[in-house]
Amino acid sequence: MASLPHHEAPTLDVGVQVAEFSPIATDPVTTPDGNPNALEQLPMVNELSDVKPTDWAYQALKSLMERYGILSAYPDKTFRGNKPMTRYEFAAALATTLDKIEGILANAIGDQYVRQDAITVRRLQKEYATVLSQVRERIDNTESKAAELEANQFSTTTKLQGQQIAAITGGSSASSTIVSRTRLNLITSFNQKDLLVTQLESGNNGSDAVGAEQREGFNLLGSAGLFANAGGLDYSDYESNLKLRRLYYTFRPQDDLAVTVGAKMAPRDFIDKNSYANDEALDFSSGIFLNNPLIIQNQIDRTSGAGIAVAWSPKNSKFAARGLYIAADANQPTQGISADRRQASVEVEYAPSNQLKLKLQYTNAQINDTDINAFGVNAEYRMNLNTGFFGRVGYGSYEGFNTAINRNLDAHPFSWSVGLQQRNLVIPGTLAGVAVGQPFVTGDLGNATQTNFEAFYNLRLSDSVSVTPIFTIVTNPDNDKDNGTIWQSTLRTVFSF
């Protein structure tokens, strides 16, 4: 998510912090709390403990302080003349000084020393005219932007984010369609250590070639087909009605422990993340490559549910641990938090170096009256700054009468996927990837094994817009060799703000 609002020292857009002091000031500055960095006016330069008559700038300081009264010092009677300052700081201070000197000049034309200083001042004005003009313009722009933000701010604690995915897709035995999904996120923090996430979502009920060609009415892993979302676009088949997709609150009892509770939580937000295959708006679009279908139960992740998640990340440790419990129908009196469509998962991460991460996982779930137990491994390896590999492997047990396919199951499926991601391929700023995987390898369902292939090339047009051509192939759909191979091409466009 986006960075959270925080209080900091005000800054100019040239990078100068103005909460600090400037060695030059026109008026004495005092603070009621005795701030040691506050400035105060001193009438005599010889009162400064760190300025001596032998210093090369002594006479200049003496003239500016005692003749014009425009230099200030610290309460401890130091000038701190060695403190560095930028060209912009000097220009801003000089502009203020010039205003005061002009007033003095108007009342002291007969003073020969003042006349000499006037010559110097006007020479400096000429030399720094361009810089002074730039500083004034920057200050005016900053004040204008600040006033606009104050007048139109959404909230002092909440940041609004939005994402629109619009994809043109078509494939074998399927007409070209447009698939769309829109999300609005409200990200709120009250004390810098917590996070309230509210997400609204809607789609256009758009379908793709993979979903259209898989068998309707058979739903083991998702919404359409026996292994729905194991091959189709992850952002397809979203209803047009605006829905609350996520609503949860994260707080930290201690710095290395995060606890999340909510009425709408998705398992993928908390476990089975991977740096190279995890975001349907950025990299792969097929569900099989975004998550392990045995570890992340799609019927819970797709709808989200009420639950709790805990993440423990000890400082300076190679290990981390996460756990969650989510019930998709916790709001239904006949279901509750312990009935059908629930998932409990734990994950332990080991990162021996910055290049390698390993996650060991376990999920216990009940979906469609079937008891599920699954173990998984999630791995990623960064070869260099541009190249990375990923892989997910799962093994599970599905037992009981499954109400989705109306048959008893005693299946021990195996799931796997591997892939490669490459940055800056041909064009700087691009992201490309290729992957292959099998969502549900078992002899208990079908007479073959479904295999998925996907390749993409993400071209970022700006900070807010990206365009990605995607090519997908699914062989033996639904583990049935009689089903023809499905191919699908997609042009995904993502708008974000």
Automatic annotation (TrEMBL):
This is Porin. GO terms for molecular function: porin activity. Gene3D superfamilies: Carbohydrate-selective porin OprB (2.40.160.180). One of its GO terms (cellular component) is membrane. It comes from Dulcicalothrix desertica PCC 7102. Pfam families: OprB, SLH. Belongs to the OprB family. It comes from the Bacteria. InterPro entries: Carb-sel_porin_OprB, Cell_Envelope_Struct_Comp, OprB_sf, Por_som-like, SLH_dom.
